[in-house]
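Incident log entry.

Two folding requests arrived from the same account within the same minute. Monitoring flagged them as a possible duplicate submission, but the sequences differ. Recording both here for audit purposes.

Request one:
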Amino acid sequence: MDAFFAAWKVAGFTPVGHIVFSKSYSSAQRFLRYAHESAYVLAKGRPELPANPISDVQPWHYSGNHSHPTEKSVDTLKPLLETFTKPGDIVLDPFAGSGSSLVAASLLQRRYIGIELEAKYCELARRRLAGVSRYLTVPRREPQREQRSQDGRIPVRVVGLQNGPA
């Protein structure tokens, strides 16, 4: 954890909270049965406080990990995005995997950028987002007109990176 805290500090982030996701199952067992996941809430500068703060203990909804080995449930991620972002904000997931965070963002009318190294997961995320985006429209607001497609939907953007020359 020292290395993470040091890297966050160098990048200008300050830990402002710690969330424990309580699981109804154990994902591993050694000295203890590991029945939780953790996340740190980081802030840069002086962001405004959330209007409706969530508890630091949250339920973990198991995704089944059908599409990705560390797939997160959209239901687990939505409360985080609802609390720490507003409609129209941009959600960045630099480890997008199968796109659960991007799907949650889309459902909550947030824009998103996902980055994933593996092409098969980029394609999976694109398919999942196409299924969600097909049913979502966002009311037009004058300042955001250029950011939307002609039918009013938020554009899908999943970036795939490849190792080596393109």
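Request two (distinct sequence, not a duplicate):
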Amino acid sequence: MTAETQPIRSIRQRRTWTETAWRELKKAPITAWFGMIVILLYALAAIFAPWLAPYGEADAVGRAYQPSSWQFWLGTDQIGRDVLSRLLYGARNTIAIALVTTLLSFFIGGTLGVLAALKRGWLDQTVSRIVDAFLAIPVLIFALMLLAVFGKNIYILVLILALLDSTRVFRLARATALNVVVMDYVESAKLRGERLGWIVFKEIVPNILPPLITEFGLRFCFVFLTISALSFLGVGIQPPTADWGSMVAENKTLITYGNPMPLYPAGAIALLTVAVNFVVDWFLHKTSGLRE
């Protein structure tokens, strides 16, 4: 194959992959489409929050607990901040922190899990026993204890949750990688003298991606809900930074007076969780080889 035909072949491969992906999307159930649309809307709200929000994140622009109106579509909170603006900024803060935390947990847990399955021996035994010890402690209680020790800081929050959540990722990555490292093509790569990076990224990771991608969606939901729970308890994202968990905590007493304001952030949390699970269920169904 000449150098001139290589770009043409690459373009054709990308076109074929795009056509295949679009065919699969068209066959997706209505629940998966609902989940993808909701996720897209949340992503747009998070990215363009400064331009979509009518007021600033922490600006007191009215009286406390003003009802819904043309000026304040969802009303104002306990110090006169616009609830709609807080919801949009809360999407940016809560989702971004949960996404970064999940990515970091997969980097730590996935790397250690694949290396433990590939190397075995003392590395596997040592990391597995440490992970077992962490898994014996409930995540929320452990996170509360560590945040009380190290302080209420976003960077500390991300690091603590990533380390705690990486234990779950490690178990899955190790279990799936153990089924791959004994395959003939991995043994052949070792006999050829391929480097560790080649074996991991060319032979093992591509064959364990479907369960890891599925787990990524589930772990994102768990991290997202944990951050909201910690913020509700007052040890997560700190004010005046907008966060859906703290918004529920700040206005929860209004439920007794028939004011729906606490339901807005609570509904946003529930809707995103359901949407991600719909997409994960569809993806798991496609990659598992099951048929209707």
